[in-house]
Amino acid sequence: MNYDEVFFKDGSLRDIYILDTDIQVWALIFNYLESSEINYQVTIDGLLTRIRDIAELLRIKKEASIGITIEYSEIDICGHFYEGSVIEFDISPIQIDSEKKIDVLMNFLKDLSRNLNKTIIITPEMTIEEVLVRVEPKGKIELIM
User: Fold this and answer.
1) Please, are residues 79 and 4 in contact by the beta-carbon 8 Å criterion?
2) Do 86 and 128 meet the contact criterion of CB atoms below 8 Å apart?
3) What are phi and psi of 62, to 5 degrees?
4) Residue 6 near residue 27 (C-beta atoms within 8 A)
5) DSSP string, 92-114
6) CA neighbours within 13 Å on the CB side: how many for 125?
7) What backbone torsions phi and psi does residue 20 show, to the nearest 5 degrees?
8) What is the DSSP letter of 88?
9) CB-CB contact of 1 with 110 (8 Å)
């Protein structure tokens, strides 16, 4: 897959959406990250927290900003806690600067999709309708352009 086709060097973020979710999927994400020994940090108003209880984080979310940064093989995948039918993360195209990095990212998304049994899409920033890449739970990756 040619990373230039998906991660243009225009500086704008790309969104990663996990579709058809609910708050329980956050617990599955934490379980996946911990069982895979993938580094991640949760912050409350920018300060690190050890809280991993989803209900507690969503309660705090009413009064503070809750963020998560997944650190995967020199790629930072950043998100915020929202209740809703999709979970959104952001990724900077500047970090996807080689074919190797796109392969690393796609392998991570394939594994996450399979573990959550959820479809994951990559889109331009704030445009969920314009799908660039679709990752299916059975491991299929589709470049849509």
Assistant:
1) no
2) yes
3) -65, -20
4) no
5) -GGG--SHHHHHHHHHHHHHHHH
6) 12
7) 55, 55
8) E
9) no
Nearest Cα to Cα of residue 75 among 89, 95, 55, 59: 95
* pTM score, whole prediction: 0.89
The encoded tokens of residue 8 equal: 């243009």
Instruction: Please name the residue that has the structure tokens 């050890």.
Output: 50
For position 3, what pLDDT does the model report?
Answer: 58
d(CA 127, CA 14): 9
Q: How far apart are the first and last CA of the chain?
A: 12
pLDDT by residue for the chain (145 residues), tens digit each? 555 666 665 667 899 999 999 888 999 999 999 999 999 999 999 999 999 998 899 899 889 999 999 999 989 999 988 767 889 999 988 888 888 888 899 999 999 999 999 999 999 888 888 888 999 999 888 877 6
144: which residues sit within 8 A by CB, 6+ positions away? Answer: 131, 132, 133, 134
Spatial neighbors of 31 by CB under 8 A, at least 6 apart, are none
Give CA–CA dist 47/36, Å, rounded.
Answer: 24
